[in-house]
Amino acid sequence: MAEKKTRAAARKIKDKWKAKVWYNLLAPDMFNKQLLGETLSDEPGKLLGRIAEVTVQDLTGDFSKMHIKLHFRVNHVQGQDALTQFIGHDMTSDYIRRLTRRKRTRTDLTIDIVTKDGWHLRVKPMAITDRRIQTSKQSAIRGLMKNVVREAAAKQSIGEFVKSIISGELAKTIALACKPIQPISRVEVRKSEVSLVGEIPTLAEAPAAEATPTAEPAAEAAAEPAAEVPEPEPESPPEEGPAPEELPPEELKDIDEL
Fold this sequence. Notes:
By secondary structure, this protein is an alpha+beta fold. Among the domains are: 73 residues, no CATH class; 107 residues, Band 7 domain (Tetrahydropterin Synthase, Chain A, 2-Layer Sandwich), CATH 3.30.479. The chain is 36% helix and 28% strand. Strands 1, 2, 3, 4, 5, 6, 7, 8 and 9 form a nine-stranded mixed sheet that branches. Strand 7 and strand 8 form a beta hairpin.
C-alpha cells in the first residue's frame, strides 16, 4: 500500500522544467546589444543578478582576443530579453603564465579610477620587462602606470575605456610612458572590476533627448495666450520744407527757347 501511495504522489508532482522559459541574454549598449546566449527560468524575477561570462572572440570573432573574458550581470528583463550590465573583465590564467618567465620582472599595480561618466572601477595592469630590474625602477613604473590609467579614465566614458582595454590602446600608452625608465616587452590590463555604476546612456533615449528642447518651446507657445498686437499709430504728415524759389520770367523764357 505504501508503494502505491508514493507512486501516485510522484505522478501528481508537476515537472518544473516544463514551466521554465528560455530568455535571451543581451549585451549592454557599448557592445551593441549582441546576443550573449540563452538562459532558463520559470519567473523573470529570478533572472536578476545572474552573471554571464563571454570571451571577446564570441562577440567580435577576433581569434587573437580569445583570452579576454567579459563579465555581465542581468539587471533588467523586457519580455523574453534579459538586459545585462558590464561588471568587469579578466584574462585566462594560462595566458598570464605564458607571459611570466624566468629572468623577467613582472610589475603589478592595483588602482581605483573614475571615468568621465562617473563609473568607479578597480583596474589591475601589469608590465613585464625582458630582464630583471631593480626595485626602484619597479616603483617608478608603478607611478607612471597609475598616472596614465587615471588620465585615460578621466577623459573617456565607460564604453570608450573598456574598448581601449580590449583593443590594447591603453597598454600601448603605458608602454610608451615607461620606455624612458626601462623598455617594456609586454603590458596587459589583466583584470577590472566595477565597484560603482555611473550614468547608463541608452540608444533609445538618445534621440528623445535631442528632440526635447525643440518640442518644449512649441508646447509652451501653444499653452500661452496670444499676445495683443498694439494698433499702429497714425502716421504724422511729413514736415513741409521751404518752398522752392520761383525763377524770374526772363529765365523762364530762356528755358522755353532751349
